[in-house]
Peptidase S41 (Epilithonimonas hispanica), 516 residues
Amino acid sequence: MRKLVSFFMIIFLFSCQSVKKNNLFLEKKISVEDLKKDVDFTYQKLQRFHPNLYWYITKEQLDHKFDSLKTSIIQPLTPNEFFFKLAPVVASVNEGHLRLRSLPKRYSKAEQKVLKTKKPLFAMMEYKVLGNQLFVKENKQNIGRIKVGTEIIKINDENVSDLIKKYNQLYSSDGENKTFQKYFINLAFFNFYTLEKGYLDSAKLQTKFENQITDVSIIRKKKTDKELDLDNNPQKITLEQKVQDYDSESKSYNRSFKFLKNDSAIAYIKVKSFSSAYAKKFYRETFEKIKKAKSNYLILDIRDNLGGSLSEINTLYSYLTDKDFTLIKSPEMTSKTSGMYQNYFRGQTFFSSVLRAAGYPFFLAGNYLFASKKDNKYYFREFASKPTKPKNDAFKGKIYVLINGASFSASSIISAKLKYEKRAVIVGEETGGANDGTVAGVNNTVKLPNSRLALPIGLLLIRPNIEFENKSRGVFPNYEVETGYANILNSEEDKMLNWILDDITFRNAITGKNNF
């Protein structure tokens, strides 16, 4: 027992020292020579592992950007000062999954314990970024008596417009797509701000409402006893909730299904992300209900779905077709050994890494055996690139798919396939993910040796099994419908969904059907 206590004391002290060393390193200036070495290291790793590096930018253009960056580094920088210089160059590859990661401040267990008792400072309100402006979209707690529609001009004396411009350089969409950025900056603005500034307990806001400028201070509030009790004793999730992939934090379902009319003529499936958890069970049960109800129409809503599991979209597609299909082409890699470099231990604790170590040789062998070479290209064996049969309960009626600029990655792949096969009517806005595929699947997260910044590099070029458009754009809808995105005030009207319902009504009127 004494040895066990000593072991845990050593782990605890090591952890405390690790946090302290990390935070001291954040303030350390790195020499010009070492920063330039990190620039070279970054480009070398991209060339080594990224399977389609010059898809949206020429080699000459990217060479110039890396050379110009090295020339611009004339004084020592801290890791995160360097991040804001290197990240825009990485983003210029114009491949949406590829983003440099900054080095965040770390917190001791004692500090983490205190933070868990408080509400997130900026999450007390909801916001919307429009262009270079930030507006309050919702303020249920009436923080600072800020009204919905109020513009936040400054945060702690920094111009919000400058911050938005700064953060917009840190990421990109796929190719020449223009719809993704406006959604992503809304998701990422305060994440970027927190990474840069740390977790703040208060902030001073300069606001503007009806041409009146006001200074407002917001303070991080403590969680109530009820909220703390829920955190410490999370509610038990039922099997039904698991099947719908229930998120206890947001108290919402990742997958949901319902009939839009009393006679069940229109089935509606909403998927917020393709997580794969209980996906097969969800789709099996859902399409059994749809078949039993004899629905004529199916609406698949994948707006704001940033992607996820290829396995899940392969399963979903098998319920949307009546013929054998292959969802994606065999994923391409830069070499036969690329798959062996994917993250295996990353994100694991010390103890879980020890347990996983036993399986590492099998992981390496499997990835090597799953790789093959053909016509001087290397491919990875992926389940979704194999022929698949349709399910017995596959839907045979008319399908509509709702998309927008936040439909990304796997959402774009299934949309592109459905559109190409003319199996669905695509409605909405150009997807943020490319029509012709993406570089993702699994990552090799390389750590820059001097700045310690992390760069996850996708190892697989994943492309839908279609004839490519070669337009460097997203999936375009068959019918483009106004999103109402610029409306700051909450609106109950769903113009895209209403367009589909009107179209169904029109078709029924022509054919003489009366389904609802």
Q: What stands out?
A: DSSP finds 15 helices and 19 strands in the chain.
